[in-house]
């Protein structure tokens, strides 16, 4: 139904039909309402007369009265007691309603002195008016029901339907003819212009006819001028669109364009995402009100005096990001380029921290080596025992430096390997046997004496896919930490307890290592798995005791996560518990 001609004819017919249908409906409902109201008034008057007549009587007298005077009305009269039992019917040959107690009309009649209802029988196509009136007799309450079918309503409806159908046919034919004449009168001159416009839209040469009625000729002249201007404008817009598209496609960042009046003229989706703005259209709105970031507003003010400038700022929602915004003053306003430099900033901070921490860790043993060498150089008369002691310190510190270099290289290799490369060295292993061997190995070390070991490994055949050497190193680092901090608290005395267990965690094998040592200080517990992270208690060294570098747990975390597992610390003080979850091997 895209043709205007068909649409006009169609809507003309619809309008005629709606007008006629509405008229028919109003007339029918008005007649029905008038007849129903008249019947209700008639039956109500009869009910009032019956109520006045039988109210001083008992039920038997009421029945006798109704039997004698049932000719008062042509409506059907029924008498019921308060329980819905039929006492009398003026038309016993009709179908009786023997029990009306459950009907809502009857219930309302018991509570109210007067009730009216109108029903419609779809089968017989007949309206019926029912009037219920409660009457207080000497021996109890009764309900008088007067029922009258409205045959006139059905007859009127049939006649109106017949008239409506005949009028419908006549008006439908008239509407089609009228619509056709209107369309031909209006659209014929426009159809010629439509064909010319179609040729113009397809790129062909279009010739506008200026001959015809004044309205059509003026419209044709205007369309001709408009087509010429449109061609020029489209060519210019196409070129500008291509240039702008190329510019925006080459910038993987947020772009905001504001005019000299402080109104936003363009804002891309990257800007909305970077600044965590709500979705919507911001074109034409104030730059200060929409952006609302103080540093960007300051940048906007600076650009009014300087041709270009930049600023850095942070966004905390939905996640913390560090952004850089470069602004430039252009002829019609200001252009802002927003980029996310969070990763670059984090890399710079991590690199600075790593260099500082690694330098510090290297500096301590190198200082000891230098001091020992200087003593040997400046004191040629040292005894053999003193010289051996200094040489022993040099060797220990050299071993310490070598151990630090080995750990750093191993950690770098773990972080640099791809998942596919690490998966090549994995095979089926038994965690229960691996943990038992590790515990027995550490129990035999001198550091493990005077420590009570609680080992609970009841599971057998706890298979997983992994590298035995890497898992031994990861779990061994955790056990080694437990021994070190337990001895830090108890020394050579008894009282230290280390618990190692292996349990079934559903989809995981859960390894738990607990100790009652000095614990982990709250200042470090959240970052315990980072490089060079040690608690304040770890930095206090006993005489002759070598402290760690803070790389063991970082190595353990990388190994466990490379095996698709999870390691976490579940308590910061006694007992300190580390939990390792490794996936079960799929059957």
Number of strands: 17
Which strand order spans the largest sheet, edge to edge or round the barrel? Answer: 2-1-5-4-3
Strand count, sense and closure of the main sheet?
5 strands, antiparallel
Mean model confidence by pLDDT: 76
Poorly predicted tracts of residues: 536-547
Tally of helical segments? 14
- The portion of residues forming beta strands comes to 15-25%
Radius of gyration: 50 Å
Shape: elongated
Which oligomerization state do the chains in this entry correspond to?
single chain
Descriptive overview:
With 587 residues, the chain is α+β, with helices and mostly antiparallel strands. The protein is built from 14 helices and 17 strands. Strands 2-1-5-4-3 form a 5-stranded antiparallel beta sheet, sandwiched between helices. Strands 7-6-10-9-8 form a 5-stranded antiparallel beta sheet, with helices on both faces. A 5-stranded mixed beta sheet has the order 12-14-15-17-16, with helices on one face. A hairpin with a 4-residue loop joins strand 1 (76-81) and strand 2. The relative contact order is 0.05. Residues 536-547 have low confidence and may be disordered.
What is this structure's SSE topology?
Elements lengths: L3 H51 L4 H10 L7 E6 L4 E4 L14 H8 L2 E8 L4 E12 L2 E11 H51 L12 H36 L4 E6 L4 E4 L1 H6 L12 H5 L2 H9 L5 E8 L5 E10 L2 E8 L1 H37 L5 H33 L2 H5 L3 E4 H13 L7 E6 L6 E4 L1 H23 L5 E9 L3 E8 L36 H11 L3 E4 L6 E8 L4
Parallel strand pairs: 12-14
Antiparallel strand pairs: 1-2, 1-5, 3-4, 4-5, 6-7, 6-10, 8-9, 9-10, 11-13, 14-15, 15-17, 16-17
Helix pairs in contact: 1-4, 9-10, 10-14, 12-13, 13-14
